[in-house]
Amino acid sequence: MDLKDLSRDVILDHNKRPRNFGRLEPPAHEARGHNPLCGDQLTVYAVLEGDVVKDVRFDGSGCAISVASASLMTEAVKGKTRAEAEHLYAAIHDLLTRADAPSLPELGKLAALGGVREFPARVKCASLCWHTLHAALEGAAAPVSTE
Amino acid sequence: MSAAPAHPVPLDIERLRADFPILSQRINGQPLAYLDNGASAQRPLAVIEAERNYAETMHANVHRGVHTLSQRATDAFEAARERVRRFIHARSTREVIFTKGTTESINLVAHSFLRPRVKPGDEILITWLEHHANIVPWQLACEATGAVLKVAPIDRNGELDLDAFRALLSDRTRLVATAHVSNALGTVLPVREIVALAHARGVPVLLDGAQAIPHFALDVQALDCDFYAFSGHKLYGPDGIGVLYGRESLLESMPPWQGGGDMILSVSFAGTTYNQLPFKFEAGTPHMSGAVGLAAAIDYVDAIGLDRIAAWEADLLQYATTKLAQIEDLRIIGTARDKASLVSFVVAGVHPHDIGTILDQHGIAIRTGHHCAMPAIEFMGVPATARASFAFYNTRAEIDRLADAVRSARDMFR
After folding, report:
1. pLDDT of residue A37
2. A72, A106, A137, B298: which one has the fewest Cβ atoms less than 10 Å from its Cβ?
3. Do A64 and B361 touch (CB under 8 A)?
4. Could you confirm whether domain A5-141 is CATH 3.40.50.2000?
C-alpha cells in the first residue's frame, strides 16, 4: 500500500496487534457490521456509563484497513461521551470521503486513515466499524424496558 | 484443458497483445498486468472498430424502417445472430436470443420456461458452485411458485459430487441448472454426464456458460443441453450483450417474458399476436452495436483458434499453479483435476482485499472477494479469495510479477 509510511505503519501495526480485540458480555450493547462485498464481519461491543463510553471492544475478521480502523476507533472513543463519539464519526466520514477535509486535531491517530481516501474501493472497509459503533450506541439509547 | 491438442501452433503473444490497446498502458507507474479476465475480458481493436463502424455507417433501428440505414442495421444485427449460431453450432438462428448477458438469459428461462411449469414441491437442481446469477433467479421462482431448490454438493477440491447429483435427481425435478465452469474455483463441470443423467429422467438442462465461453469450442448440439447462457464481455466482446441459446421446441412452448415492440406481430386491445422466434423474446430496441461487436469478437477468437487459446491457457494455468504453490503461507482454493485458467488463493495473515490493493500498486489487476459465489467460497472455509484469471494475451512474465507481488504483500503483513 502506497500510503504515507507513517500511516502505513500505523495501519499495519493495528492490523497485526488490534487493540481492544475481544467481546464484552451483556449488558454491554453490541451491533454487528457486515460488508457483503468483502466478507468483512465485525461486532462492536460498548458499555455506557451514563453518557460516557466506558468500555468498547470489537471482534470479527476483515482486511487490514477494517481491522486497523476498528482498533483505532476503540482507542479513540473510549472515555468519550456519546456526542463526542458521534462527532468523531462525522469527522472520520469527512476524512475518508472529502479531499478538502480539514485535519482536525481531535482525530489524533485516526488521521492515519486519511490515506484510505486514495483507494475509493476501500473506504467502506474503514467506515464499517464506525457505522457499527453508531448502531451499537443507537441500540444503547433504546428503552431498557425491552429487557 | 485436456481437450487441447498436444502440439498446436504456438501463439505469437506479443503480436496479439498489440491488438488490445488497453493492455499497453501503465497503472500506478507499472505496466498493466490484467489478470481479471474472469470478471471481464478486454476488447481487441477489431471489436472496437466494428462497433464504431456500425455507429458511423449503419445505425438506425432494426426490423422497423423501410429506409436504407434501418435495413443495414437489421442486416448487421441478423448477421451477428448467424455468426453466433455458427460459433455455438445451434441448428437455427431461431435458437439464438440476444440478451443483456448471462444473468438476463438465466432470468428469461426462470420466468418464461420454469415458472409456468412448476407446482409446489417441484424441484430445481443446481450445484454448490454456482454464481449468484444461477442461484437467485431460481430462489425467486421458488418463492413465487412453491417449488424447492435442491443443491448438489461439492468436495474439498471443488469438484461436483456426481453420485450425490444423481441421487438428487427426482421425479419432481423440473430443471437442472449448472455452471459449465465455476467462476470462483475454476472447476470444469462434467456437463456431458450432467446432461445425460438429467435427460435420462426427462429433465431439461440449462448451462451457465459465462466462464466457459472464452475457453472452449462450444457445440450445443453435441453437448445436447437445452439452454446455454453466456455474455459477450467475457469473450473479448462488448458489455451489455449476451446470448441465450434454447432448444427451439422449448422456446416455442414458452410465453414471452417481456412485452414491447419487436416481439409482436399485431397488437389490438382484443388481443396481441406474438412474433416468431427469436424475436418473441427480444422486446424493445436491442443492443445492436453490441451484437455487431460480439460477432467481431467471435471472428477474432476463431481466427486465432480456440484450440490454440486453450493450449496456451493450459500452460499459463500450470505455470501459475506451480509458481503460486511455491509461496509459503499461500493456499490455492479450488484444486479440481479439470480447471479453466484461473487460480483462486488465500495467503495466511493477509486478507484478499489487501492483496488486491497491493497488487494494484504493482500494476496487477486481480479480483478479490467472494466472486458472487458466496456458497462455494464459504464451503471452502474462507471468507474471500484472491483470484487471478488468465486470457490468451497473458504471459508467464506477468505471472512471475504476480508471484513476486504476492510475496511482497505477505512480507508487508508479517
Report:
1. 73
2. A106
3. no
4. no
Question: Tens digits of per-residue pLDDT, A97-131?
Answer: 888 877 788 888 898 898 888 888 889 999 999 99
Do the interacting molecules here have an ipTM over 0.90? no
Q: Does B408 touch chain A (CB under 8 A)?
A: no
B-chain residues near A41 (CB < 8 A): 383
Distance CA(B335)–CA(B315), nearest Å, equals 16
Q: Which domains occur in chain B, in start order? A: 13-43+305-413 (3.90.1150.10), 47-302 (3.40.640.10)
Say yes or no: B132 contacts chain A, CB-CB below 8 A: no
Are A31 and A132 contacting, i.e. CB atoms less than 8 angstroms apart? yes
Q: Does B348 reach chain A within 8 Å, measured CB to CB?
A: no
Which long-range contacts (C-beta less than 8 Å, at least 24 apart) are formed by A23-26?
Answer: A23/A57, A23/A59, A24/A55, A24/A57
Contacts of B413 in chain A (CB under 8 A): 12, 15-16, 64
Q: What is the mean pLDDT of residues A24-33?
A: 91
Proportion of chain B above pLDDT 90, given as a percent: 90
Domain extents in chain A: 5-141
Contacts of B399 (CB under 8 A, 6+ apart): B316, B319, B320, B323, B388, B390
The count of CB pairs under 8 A between chains A and B is: 42
User: Which one of A63, A69, A125 would you mutate to disrupt binding with B, by most B Cβ within 10 Å of its Cβ?
Assistant: A63
User: Distance from CA of residue A31 to its chain's centroid?
Assistant: 12
List the single residue in A with minimal CA-CA distance to B413: A12
pLDDT tens sequence across B91-145:
999 999 999 999 999 999 999 999 999 999 999 999 999 999 999 999 999 999 9
The verdict on a CB contact (< 8 Å) between B353 and A1 is no
Put simply, the chain A residues between 84 and 143 with a CB less than 8 A from any chain B CB are 119, 121-122, 125
